[in-house]
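Can't paste images in this forum, so I'm doing it all in text. The chain is below; anyone willing to post the predicted structure tokens underneath?
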Amino acid sequence: MFQIKKILFPVDFSAACLGASRYVEAFTGRFQAELTLLHVVDNSAYRAWGTSAYWGMSGADVGREGVKWAREEMGKFLTEETKHFDVKREVLEGDAGQQIVAAARRSGVDLIMMPTHGLSVFRRYILGSITAKVLHDAECAVWTGTHMENAPPLDAIAFPKVLCAVDLGPQSERALRWAAGFAKEHSAELIVANIIPVRQAGQARYFDQGFVADISNSVRQELQVLLNNLGITARPIVVGGEPAKALSGIAQSERVSQVVIARGAAAEGLGRLRTQAYAIVRSSPCPVVSV
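Text version of the structure:
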């Protein structure tokens, strides 16, 4: 049975964070999960901000002021929206990426949910820093979403279609099982895509369009065999192109509401999804779960 028992939501009180919180509410309510709200006070970020309130302060003083402010904000953040949930609120100090990963590991979290960037003080922590570190180091699934400032209201969040991208490598089974379980929970149609990278100038490791046409049927058959072996019903799609762009195009044309991809050291197969994971997150028109 597919379950998400514990969710960790890193909070920075930004507009993107508020938008992502609607998805957090939807997931937490759907799975009756235990929710942890976490804010990390990164002293270097506060000093880099350059606000006059912190001029002349030592690192310890900045930290104390940051913790005091964060605890006040955390005490009133999403209180009404989460009043029926099992919620924990934590404020920690240190490197944000490291603390998020460590907190998830300590608590046995099933899913970390976070926008790709948030509060202006943390603008330098775009994908490639905090989010990238969490995606690289976290042992659990990670949900990420871009443009969360424009997230739909809670009652408009639904998942009629789920898209899972696989490269037919060893990690594909893990991603497929997660996507299939999530789709079943929401009575959603599951689409499974394999993107065959098409060669562009200076990219000798990729394939040309003729090769893609020659192998697409065999790849589709291999994908169907994998689905049959796992007992998963899904609609397979095989296309050639630049992986992140092609996957985004499928998600847009199919009006997908959730994308699932695999990540990890094993993800080095035909689609090279590990090397494309950050690009997929950035370009996806809907949130992405990296398993």
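The chain has two domains: 6-149, 158-290. The mean pLDDT is 84.
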